[in-house]
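Contributing new complexes? Match this layout with aspartic acid.
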Amino acid sequence: MILNNIKPKIVIHGGYGSFEGMNDTRKAVHESLTKIVNKAYAVLLQKNAKTAVVEAVKLMEDDPLYNAGTGSRIQADGKIRMSASFMHGNALRFSGIINIQNIQNPIEVAQNLQNEHYPIIACNHSNYGQDIWNLPHYNPETEHRRKEYESRRKGKTGTVGAVAIDINGNIVAGTSTGGIGNETPGRVGDSPTVAGNYASKNAGVSVTGIGEEIVNLSVASRIVSLVDEEINLNDAVQSVMARAKENKYNFGIISLDRFGNCIVEKTTEEIYYASSDGQAQTFYH
Ligand code: ASP
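Output block (do not edit by hand):
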């Protein structure tokens, strides 16, 4: 469907890391992302970029393969704290939830915060989701993550994100994470900040990788700001990747501009992603 020359498009990612020797996981992620991008694209056509991004991120949060929602990594004190953010590019409004516990879909809370006077909230108690948002108590822990935590192993599959443009040219980005695992409780990564998730009416970006490094370069907002200054998306992404290389930083990004250009880049490891503008394509890069 093309109207006003805008072709709806969505790109999603399932995190950054190496799948070396993990062929079963690779296959499962491939299938999951393909399914999810197809569902989210149908929502993009029926509704809008906002609903499609929430749907895509929610479906990934519900799949224990990813480090977001169900299957989130466990922090040093044995608890799961999740963070998510949402940005409506055309409304130029960012919202985010930091370190929320005991709920199923942090992206829904991040999106609901769009309507609040204070759209970025760091949770100060474990029942914040129940007390403030009236959400049912939900335990996102999986056996796999508990074992990973107990053996102090680093997990491989990651944070999730989505960027979409709808037929009216609305660009929206959403990102959700369980963090890096074994981190100090209270740690804040990039995902609930403008470094990890940002959009304007010209472009949207979601990032995954080492949060502290992503914040140092302010990756998502830097790329979008360059595009806002009329730099084309590929040049904007490459300029940030050059700085990442200089600093030996580790992350991957998905991005989309108002012309429907989609650029996916990463430093040393792999980013698994899928896109659809009518035909789903799933890759790792
Ligand atoms: N960026 C996330 C964080 O640092 C982790 C990830 O993308 O896997 O919390």
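Reviewers usually confirm one structural detail per submission. For this one: The radius of gyration is 17 Å.
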